[in-house]
Amino acid sequence: MFKDTNFAKLTPANLGLFSQCFHRFVAWSYYISFFFKNQIVITGKNNLPPRSFGSYIVAATHSSTFDPPIVSSATCRPVAYMSKKELFTPWLKGIGYRLVGAFSVNRDKLEMATIRTSKVVLESGDWLLGIFPEGTRSKDGQVHQPKKGVAFMAKTCNKPILPIGIAWVPRKNKKYPKLVVHIGELIPVSPQSDLEALTQLVQERLNTLQIQAENTKLDS
User: Fold this and answer.
1) What is the mean pLDDT of residues 123-143?
2) Where are the domains of the chain?
3) Which residues contact 154 (CB under 8 A, 6 or more apart)?
4) How far is residue 121's CA from residue 20's CA, in Å, rounded to a whole number?
5) Per-residue pLDDT for 114 more than 80?
6) Share of the chain residues as helix, strand and coil, in percent rounded to the nearest 5
7) Which of the four CATH numbers 2.30.29.30, 3.40.1130.10, 3.40.50.720, 3.20.20.150 does domain 12-214 have?
8) Partners of 165 in the beta sheet?
């Protein structure tokens, strides 16, 4: 069913203490930058499972290249992201992505290597698996054509999904928009979950969170 390639290469050694520390350093460096330049509002923190809960999959809206470190900062956990293979060339750039836990995937076809690597991430105990459902950025932040990858991985690995909406909200008389992150309720998943229905549910939850984030009342 799946062709085995070398698209995804992450082992427990790649997810060790050094990678965790480096990932957090990068994520929080971005967070501090956004905090002073854009200001950040994070809502729904009460929906974050405690660390003792274990691993889960994070699905987020995606309109900016800065979304990955934003999600990592909001969840306060290291997140290994599925990333398109084109981001890993040239090789030096690829090393940088791997250092923060990202792994390359084939967006056109699901590979066995992707499944194996996702399981390695979710079985590590510390890392979360991050997926942007459309596999690319959206101009308006909404999820229009979600792929079944999120639902498939959640069902295969028997892990719940945490939806997160990210909005860049313009401010009057301000050069930079305010960054609003809205964390939704955990979506339970079981091996019996229907892929189509779960994919649609994730899309609906994310688009609702996106609208709520965009409509958050902000101070100037």
Assistant:
1) 90
2) 12-214
3) 57, 160, 161, 187, 189, 193, 198
4) 12
5) yes
6) 45, 15, 40
7) 3.40.1130.10
8) 182
CB proximity list for 61: less than 8 A, separation 6 or greater = 67, 132, 138, 141, 142, 143, 164, 165, 166, 167, 206, 207, 209, 210
Determine the pLDDT at residue 2.
34
At 167-206, the pLDDT tens digits run 998 888 788 888 999 999 999 999 899 999 999 999 999 9
Among positive and negative, which fits the CA dihedral 68, 77, 197, 119? positive
Structure tokens at 98: 């791997």
3-state secondary structure of 108: coil
CA atoms of 199 and 66, how far apart (whole Å): 24
pLDDT of residue 5: 43
